[in-house]
Amino acid sequence: MVENRPWLNVLTHLVLVVGVIVIAFPVYLAVIASTHDEGAFLRGVVPLLPGPHLLDNYGQMLSQGMSTSGAPPLTLMLANSLVMAIAIAVAKIAISIISAYAIVYFRFPLRTLAFWTIFITLMLPVEVRIIPTFKVVADLGLLNSYAGLTIPLIASATATFLFRQFFLTVPDELMEAARVDGAGPMKFFRDILLPLSRTNMAALFVILFIYGWMQYLWPLLVTTDTKFYTVVMGIKRMAAVADADPQWNLVMAAVVLAMLPPVLIVVFMQRLFVKGLVETEK
Amino acid sequence: MAAIELSGVKKTYPGGIEVIHGLDLAIADGEMVVLVGPSGCGKSTLLRMIAGLETITDGTISIGGAVVNRREPAERDVAMVFQNYALYPHMTVRGNLEYGLRNRGTPRAEIDARVEAAARTLEIAPFLDRKPRQLSGGQRQRVAMGRAIVRQPKAFLFDEPLSNLDAKLRGQMRIEIRRLQRALGTTSVYVTHDQLEAMTLADRLVVMNGGHIEQVGKPTELYDRPASLFVAGFIGSPPMNLIDIETLRALTGAAFPPSLPVGTDIVGIRPDAIMMGPAGGGDISISGVVELIEPVGGESHLYVRVAGLDQAMVIVAQGRSVLSETGRLDFSLPVAALHPFSRATGKRLR
């Protein structure tokens, strides 16, 4: 804005500050809680300054977990979540970029039908088809396995659609030039389309990683063996203990640890992420 | 290097729309042929059929004596320069030049040698390690040319390569393409809608209209003796004046000029063939009102409204015109410079 209106500046900043506090305060509280002892949050006055038990709490959660609520060590759950999120993100990108390539660059019978079929699955997220999907996964013997955790979540219309839109903006002449230069379909895909989609893939990876990390309902259904627990569902299990007070300090330590990977992914891939969303490199 | 031969070539798009109607054309080895015509005449489609980017519905295309109808573009050993250059945006200039050679399994040393040579010829050596988007339009154009010449193909195919450049650069690149093509002696097919480009670049000019060839010949031949009304109107700027013979007779009261062949319905005259002032022996005198004067520098284009004619006549007057707009002008059409056409066939009569 060119106009200089001080009261407007004050007002906008006020709104922003309030917004930040609303978002950040619970996170802050979680961090603080994870540094106190067991009773600190149950005594009535919520402490606002860090306590002395940071290392104890995190150490216990990482190495032993919370046996009273049947939660395995966080390292295991974090590893499971990581495997699941990465597998989902990578596989989703791989499958959707290939199907988008087929749909955009090849003329085959029922191509439009194929596209619309993929598109329609947008209306069928896991939550909608959860019972039949569970039945299929159970019959295939995939309960309590990484395959069972990831495969049903891999098919992705969104990513296919995103790549399709991107491929449509790549000029046809590029494909023709490659053909004249002696590149077949696979070579064109590998040498030209893939490098051009690099930033799109990065942006999608961030989104899909977080999507995979946040999965709650599906892991809750298909895992009964603690070996395959993921961290998001594990936290729920810790917070809801029967016949005892929840150990908030430990739960919050788990929460903070569970928040870290998505934050790190966003921080480290931010540059590529933004590029992939705004830039069209042609 | 190779001759290209098209015989009975047809193109029908799915849905039954025929865009090229049985076309024959022989392009000699080392020749530069320019396809020119209005948009939608099929010239780009024809070029893409030669390149192998469009299928051939009927007829045959052969390059260097071998029928290539069913060959992939890469197997035809032709190189193409696209209108929007189609450089690979993520590769450096060097990468762009090398790509076709690497796909063909050319030895590394030879690739380097060819790229160096092409970069020297086109003066793009300083940019070899840049990405295309860091280059100006003219430089990208050179890279696109470079990508074609490193391949040392049997033929170059140019699809309106200069139409994205500004006028000055277009003039420069035109000369450079001509020089390069002469030096390399590679058979070339060049598509353009710019008739100045067509006239200056072509060994032979092919004027196309509606999926047919209207006329093939040296640029000067086409200018001097257009074979049809279409070519007459298309080649030359400003275009030829076309006048209905009856109107002309009514206008001048002149008898049928005896030198014109029987059956002439329309006569054409080039704007620069029209003489100023009343006519001498046997030529046709006309007078009209100057509607508009376009000073082009060395010459002026006069648009003269003549009573009885639908369109203003265009006259090219040498030097600065001292006439004023709305002034009266007497001029004459030398009978020897008239081009006779038949209305029914659209063809030249002599």
Structure at a glance:
Chain A is mainly α. Chain A has helices at 6-33, 54-63, 74-105, 111-120, 130-139, 146-154, 157-169, 172-180, 185-196, 198-213, 217-222, 231-239, 248-278.
Structure commentary:
The mean pLDDT of chain A is 87. Chain A has a single domain, classed as MetI-like (MetI-like fold). Chain A is built from 13 helices and no strands. Chain A has helices at residues 6-33, 54-63, 74-105, 111-120, 130-139, 146-154, 157-169, 172-180, 185-196, 198-213, 217-222, 231-239, 248-278. Chain B is α+β, with helices and mostly antiparallel strands and 350 residues long. Helix content of chain B is 27%, strand content 30%. In chain B, the strands form four sheets. Chain B has a six-stranded mixed β-sheet with strand order 6-7-8-3-9-10, with helices on both faces. Chain B has a five-stranded antiparallel β-sheet with strand order 13-17-14-15-16, with no helix packed on it. In chain B, strand 9 (204-209) and strand 10 form a beta hairpin. In chain B, helix 3 (108-122) crosses helix 4. The model of chain B has no long low-confidence stretch (mean pLDDT 89). Chains A and B meet through helix 8 and helix 9 of A and strand 6 and helix 2 of B.
Counted beta strands of chain A: 0
Mean pLDDT of chain B: 89
Largest interface: A-B, 19 and 24 residues
What distance separates the N and C termini of chain A?
32 Å
Low-pLDDT runs of 5+ residues of chain A are none
> Runs of chain B with pLDDT <50, length 5+?
none
Report the major sheet of chain A: none
CATH superfamily of chain A: MetI-like
Cα-based radius of gyration of chain B, to the nearest Å:
24 Å
* Reported CATH architecture of chain A: Orthogonal Bundle
Main sheet of chain B: which strands, in order across? 6-7-8-3-9-10
* Shape designation of chain A: globular
* Binned strand content of chain A: under 5%
- By CATH reckoning, the class of chain A would read Mainly Alpha
Strand content of chain B: 25-35%
Number of helices of chain B: 9
* Alpha plus pi helix count of chain A: 13
Order of helices and strands of chain B: EEEHEEEHHHEHEHEEHHEHEEEEEEE
CATH topology of chain A: MetI-like fold
Number of domains of chain A: 1
